[in-house]
TrEMBL record:
It comes from Acidithiobacillus caldus (strain SM-1). The lineage of its organism: Bacteria, Pseudomonadati, Pseudomonadota, Acidithiobacillia, Acidithiobacillales. This is Peptidase. It comes from the Bacteria. Gene3D superfamilies: Glutamine Phosphoribosylpyrophosphate, subunit 1, domain 1 (3.60.20.10). InterPro entries: Ntn_hydrolases_N (IPR029055), UCP009120_prtse (IPR016545).
Length: 254
């Protein structure tokens, strides 16, 4: 399985992905699921992939070939993010159908993609491309999109608003990823993070860590400490409150 997520805030985009792939309990591999395409001062895209590895690799190969061969339609030429999502979705459909025709036995060749980026002066955005070919975008009320094992990290992302800073959103994305890593063995390191500042079109900041990297360990430790402290500040039950009041009265009397 996999876990990929992206967040849009007013100042840019955050992407985060794991790197574990597997075709069964004894067939586990490590492949990056974060793929970057960019032309300085013109446009930048990040494409997160999930699903059948053969399909995702074939789609990525085709995307790069179209760029290298100066095809009329490519990530370098599409005029909008919506058309970029349509373009990726059409290639995905072609690849899935080709793989399905070659195999008589039932095999799941489906794949999903999470595309984000910015073209020129247009605002940055995100598109989640489903295996069925349809796509959805983020919104100010729902500024994040996810693929894969989404349930473990979603409650954290529900806190995010578009007014958050890029760095705060990035830390939330990493805690969401770490929570999923701890809860599901089908999601695994290395963890990749990309922060794209809006209007810069400079490729952003790309980071990659193993699960035991000092930064991630410190992030996990402080998050757990903060949770424990927050639970300690939650309202007491009625019987606890009475007990606390009696203890306070006794101490004051002394």
């Amino acid at each position: 399985m996999t876990y990929c997520l992206a967040i849009r805030v007013d100042t840019g985009l955050v992407f985060c992905s794991d790197s574990r792939t597997h075709g069964g309990i004894d067939n586990v591999g490590t492949y990056s699921k974060m793929h970057r395409f960019g032309w300085s001062d013109q446009r930048h895209f990040c494409l997160l992939s999930a699903g059948n590895l053969a399909t995702t690799q074939s789609v990525l190969r085709r995307l790069r070939q179209d760029i290298q061969r100066d095809q009329r339609i490519s990530l370098r030429t599409v005029p909008s993010l919506d058309l970029a999502a349509d373009y990726v979705g059409s290639i995905r459909a072609e690849v899935q159908q080709r793989h399905a025709r070659r195999h008589s036995e039932p095999t799941d060749f489906t794949a999903s993609f999470l595309l984000g980026g910015q073209i020129g002066s247009a605002p940055p955005g995100l598109r989640l491309i489903y295996p069925q070919g349809n796509a959805i975008h983020e919104s100010s009320e729902h500024p994040f999109l996810q693929m894969g094992e989404v349930q473990y990290g979603k409650p954290l992302l529900d806190m995010v608003t578009s007014q958050w800073s890029l760095e705060a959103a990035a830390r939330c994305a990493l805690v969401s990823m770490d929570t999923t890593l701890q809860s599901n063995l089908s999601v695994g390191p290395p963890v990749e993070l990309l922060i794209l500042t809006g209007d810069r079109l400079d490729g952003g900041r790309h980071l990659r860590w193993g699960s035991e990297h000092l930064f991630l360990r410190e992030l996990r430790s402080q998050w757990h400490q903060g949770l424990a402290a927050a639970i300690g500040r939650l309202p007491p039950f009625p019987w606890e409150e009475s007990s606390l009041n009696r203890e306070k009265t006794y101490k004051n009397a002394r």
